[in-house]
Amino acid sequence: MEHLEVKIHQAGIDELEELQQISRTTFTETFSVHNSEENMRNYLRDNLSLEKLGEELNNPESSFYFAEMKDQVIGYLKLNVGAAQNECKENTGLEIERIYVLKEYHGLTIGQLLFEKAISIAKSMEMQYVWLGVWEKNERAIAFYTKNGFKVVGHHLFKLGDDIQTDYLMKLAL
């Protein structure tokens, strides 16, 4: 297999349409098999619109990073600190809100590279821990985070359309 050259860079507002495309594609690939078409359509409309993603990109307490290979965005990472975090809004923690990789690139360590970028950023900010929420039925992601040292510390509810789902809250001390 050829050497994979993956570049990771912080996404800017000028890359909003690429962010929406990778967000919608990876979310659909990950969750459409387990959720109704209507709930998926509503989630994409309400949470991954250009307007909503633009607000997130412009939030100084959130940041997005693209993984690119051969000038194509193949995955992304979203980080939150301070008040942008969904829970655990302490200034000593960083939230990994999203790590998604296109399905055709699964198994090539792209997710691991994005994860390592998140840990590097957290350490450079002198954070004491990194945390995230992961759907209880997303066994692949749970195994990935467990392998990387995360422990389940609680749960919260996540609404996908009219379906109320449970996410595990996982935490890694730095």
Describe the structure.
The protein has 174 residues and is α+β, with helices and mostly antiparallel strands. It has a single domain (6-173), classed as Gcn5-related N-acetyltransferase (GNAT) (Aminopeptidase), CATH 3.40.630. The chain has five helices and seven strands, in the order βαααβββαβαββ. The chain has helices at residues 16-31, 37-47, 50-58, 110-124, 139-147, and strands at residues 6-10, 62-69, 72-80, 93-101, 129-135, 151-160, 163-173. The protein has a seven-stranded mixed beta sheet with strand order 1-2-3-4-5-7-6, sandwiched between helices. Helix 1 (16-31) crosses helix 3. The longest helix has 16 residues, at 16-31. The radius of gyration is 15 Å and the shape is globular. The termini are far apart. The model has no long low-confidence stretch (mean pLDDT 94).
